[in-house]
Design a protein that fits this description.
The chain is mainly α. A two-stranded antiparallel sheet has the order 1-2. Helix 1 runs antiparallel to helix 2, helix 1 runs parallel beside helix 3 and helix 2 packs antiparallel against helix 3. The longest helix has 25 residues.
Length: 94
Amino acid sequence: MTADLEEKTDRYEQMLAAALDVATETPADETPLAVAAADCREMAASYLRDGRHFREQDDLVNALASFSYGYGWLDSGVRMGLFSIPEDTELFTM
């Protein structure tokens, strides 16, 4: 089971980091939607940092949870139209 948890944690960390790299905020600057997009990105980035911290502590369960929550924040922002993503990506459920 530990090998499965390690593999899944690795995969989700890579997925979140890649998603942060390709998601582009779409709302016009200085609008409420721009603030929402920035908040979603910051939450996702914070969960990525938290997950990496947990991983350093050998706490794979909380690392995986952090990566999953971070990805959820970014994915919900994509679904709400706060971010544009490349058409050829398989990182998001569109």
